[in-house]
Design brief:
The chain is an alpha+beta fold. The protein has a single domain (3-107), classed as XisI-like (TATA-Binding Protein, 2-Layer Sandwich). The chain is 21% helix and 36% strand. The chain has 2 helices and 5 strands. Strands 1-2-3-4-5 form a 5-stranded mixed beta sheet, with helices on one face. The two termini are 24 Å apart. 19% of the residues are buried.
Length: 113
């Protein structure tokens, strides 16, 4: 299996695992997995109504695969996604925490770009 497909599968598996658990406090808000393997963009969004009067449309997880690396662009979950990606076969040196400012990425355990 080539690295790109392996990384795509790892990201999608992580997102599907997260999306499979409904919100306990907002059971009418659905978690939706959006996976664009052609453009290497991946998201989990929440969509639905909370308390019948508040529309929820939020991005909880956002990943991109660029230049052979998995970029974690957003993580509004309690999941340690970098660790979960490594558990699924993504090399630590191929994970970029895109939500960390570029100047501070050298202080993380992961790739800078």
């Amino acid at each position: 299996m080539d690295t790109l497909k392996k990384y795509q599968d790892a990201v999608v598996d992580l997102m599907e695992h997260y999306a499979a658990t409904p919100f306990s406090n907002s059971p009418t808000v659905e978690k939706q997995v959006i996976a664009d393997r052609e453009r290497n963009r991946f998201q989990v969004i929440g969509f639905g109504w909370e308390n019948e009067d508040k529309l929820v449309h939020s991005t909880f997880l956002h990943f991109e695969i660029k230049n052979g690396k998995v970029w974690v662009q957003q993580n509004w979950t309690e999941i340690p996604v970098a660790t979960e990606l490594m558990n699924r076969g993504v090399a630590k040196t191929d994970i970029v925490l895109g939500f960390v400012p570029e100047y501070a990425r050298q202080d993380t355990e992961y790739a800078v770009a």
